[in-house]
Every structure is written in C-alpha cells, then in structure tokens.
C-alpha cells in the first residue's frame, strides 16, 4: 500500500500538501499539487488552494491559471481519489529514494498557520505567469510549505522571493514584509508552545487521546480508555498510566519525545503494527523509542517515519499505521494537576 494514499478525505488537515496523478495524457504522467485550505467531511466541502483554471483547453487554461481556492472535487477534476496522495515531508533517505517523484520530501514543512499565511498571500495572483517548466503548481505548493520555490518533478528551483512576484515595487516589498511579520509571529507562538512542553521534561505526564480518553498500560500493550473522575466504582474507573517525558526541541517545528514508565523501567517503542512497552537494552537503536510530536498532536515513529500511532476501533488498542489517515491526535498533559483534581473529587464524595 502506498503510505501517502488518502482513503478518507475527512482526515485531511489544514495545510496538508496534496497531489493528484494525471494519467490522461499518456504516455506522460504528472502530478497536480495544492494545499488543503479548509477541512471537510466530503470532497465537496474540503477546500484546496492551488494554481488552476476552469478552462478545459490546455493552452488557454495555462494563460488563465491563477492561485485560487476551489473544492476538492474541482481539484480532482474527474480523476479518481485513489490517485491522490498526501505529500510527505521530513522523510528518510530510503523513503525518498524509493518514492514516486513529488510524493515524498526530506525537507521539513513549516507549521500549518505559516503554510496558510503563504496561501493567503498568493490568493488571486499568477494569472498569465504560469509556466509548466519554471513556475508550475508544484513550485507554488512547495513554497507554501517550505518557503522554497522548487519542483521535484522537474528538479527545478526558482530564485524568486515568492511565486508570481516579479516586480520590486514598494507595495510588493511591504506585502512581503507583512507576510514575514506574520511568519515570525507564528514561529514565536510555536516556540512558546514548545517551552510549555519543555517545562514538563523529566516529569510525569498523561497522554490524552482526543477529548475524553487517556492512554493506559495493560500488560505490554497500551489502550485508549475513558477516565471519568466521577466514577465511584474503582473497577470501572480507568486510571491512566503516567509516563516520564523526555523532550528534545531542535527547531520550532521539530519536537522529539521519548516516554518511559518509571514503575517498570520499560520504554514506549514502535514496531510493525504495534506499540509496546519494552525493556531498553544497550543494543537497541535510539530511534526505536523516539517519536516526533506533530503540530496537530500526531506521534510519528523515528524508527520508520511512515509509521503513525493510531487507535484500533474495535478495542481501543494503540498500534502503528503506515498512513497518516489513521493517526490519532494526542495531548501531553502534566499528571500531577490531574491527580490533585481527582483527589478533590474523591474528597467531595466522602
């Protein structure tokens, strides 16, 4: 299975880079690229920002193309959803080497607010400036994600500060400065969020899944369980497992964590189709126990960057999936304040 495939459009997140393979011009194939601008439950409700024209004629559509927002249905343009991919960033050398052109990148993506700010900057621009060789939809989507105008299909890099921005008028300079100010503000907010996480380094934490469930260790496996502090029967009251958090922030958009259970000395590790607590040995690779904590709360394995931690529907067990479609979204919460609140609830019952 292609790990970049999108099987459920409702799993698309803001700022996701997507592409669709076009096979209509055989023997040539190419990908059309865009950025998810608005989430939705179906293709008609998902909005995509991309360089596009509604004109069917190829040459006329190139002249009319501009950066605009359309539905995902229009983005697909009668092409099957099975041919759509979620472009993967921060991939390994091996994944990059064996991937199709344009589906996987080793570079790191900026956070979604910055990606959307770049999209807003470009809206309405580009009419008459589209060039399939030097400035196409992939150049633009890569710039929105990374700030670099680059096309992997053509191995072509542009030297412009922004797509379609060929003049150096005072007005354009001011627009660029305003965009840069927004980007720096979002980076500052991300760094503040990272400092809050770093304040929990070495401390007890809970992993919250969604709005109401927490991660609990049962045997060597982990499960997402409901933890209701108002439940009086201890049999039905699932106390979540507290982990010790170790966190490493190398850049504003790069947060790596490890989690261990001090009571057992076991560490959270990722394996094919499962997530286990394992007794760490000197011969184990560090990447086995490391996870990247994404902007939306995804936990991505550093052992295999195509693996994301998700939750099985049938029993709530945590496991690895080789697609982000099934990734769960976690919140890291300090355990001590939660424990104190539960003590207060128990005291009120007495």
Automatic annotation (TrEMBL):
Source organism, top-level taxon: Eukaryota
Family matches, as InterPro entries: LRAT_dom (IPR007053)
LRAT domain boundaries: 28-153
Matching PANTHER family: OS05G0310600 PROTEIN (PTHR46137:SF3)
Name the UniProt record assigns to this protein: LRAT domain-containing protein
């Amino acid at each position: 299975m292609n790990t970049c495939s999108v099987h459920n459009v409702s799993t698309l997140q803001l700022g996701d880079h997507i592409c669709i393979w076009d096979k209509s011009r055989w023997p040539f194939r190419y990908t059309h690229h865009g950025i998810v601008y608005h989430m939705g439950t179906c293709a008609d409700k998902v909005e995509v920002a991309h360089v596009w024209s509604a004109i069917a004629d190829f040459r006329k559509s190139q002249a009319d193309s501009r950066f605009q927002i359309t539905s995902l249905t229009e983005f697909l343009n009668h092409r099957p959803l099975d041919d759509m991919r979620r472009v993967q960033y921060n991939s390994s050398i091996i994944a990059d080497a064996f991937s199709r052109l344009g589906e996987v990148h080793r570079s790191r993506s900026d956070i979604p607010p910055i990606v959307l700010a770049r999209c807003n900057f470009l809206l309405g621009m580009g009419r008459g400036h589209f060039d399939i060789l030097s400035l196409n939809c992939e150049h633009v989507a890569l710039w929105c994600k990374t700030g670099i105008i680059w096309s992997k299909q053509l191995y072509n890099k542009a030297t412009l500060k922004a797509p379609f921005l060929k003049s150096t008028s005072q007005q354009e300079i001011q627009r660029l400065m305003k965009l840069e100010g927004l980007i720096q503000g979002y980076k500052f907010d991300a760094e503040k969020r990272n400092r809050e996480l770093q304040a929990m380094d070495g401390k007890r934490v809970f992993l919250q899944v969604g709005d109401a469930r927490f991660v609990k260790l049962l045997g060597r496996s982990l499960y997402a369980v409901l933890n209701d502090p108002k439940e009086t029967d201890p049999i039905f009251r699932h106390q979540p497992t507290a982990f010790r958090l170790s966190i490493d922030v190398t850049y504003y958009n790069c947060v790596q964590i490890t989690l261990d259970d001090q009571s057992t000395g076991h560490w959270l590790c990722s394996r094919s189709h499962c997530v286990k607590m394992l007794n760490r040995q000197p011969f184990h690779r560090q990447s086995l126990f490391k996870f990247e904590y994404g902007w939306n709360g995804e936990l991505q394995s550093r052992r295999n960057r195509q693996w994301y931690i998700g939750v099985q529907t049938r029993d709530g067990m945590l496991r690895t999936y080789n697609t982000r479609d099934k990734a769960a979204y976690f919140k890291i919460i300090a355990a001590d304040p939660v424990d104190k609140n539960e003590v207060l609830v128990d005291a009120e019952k007495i």
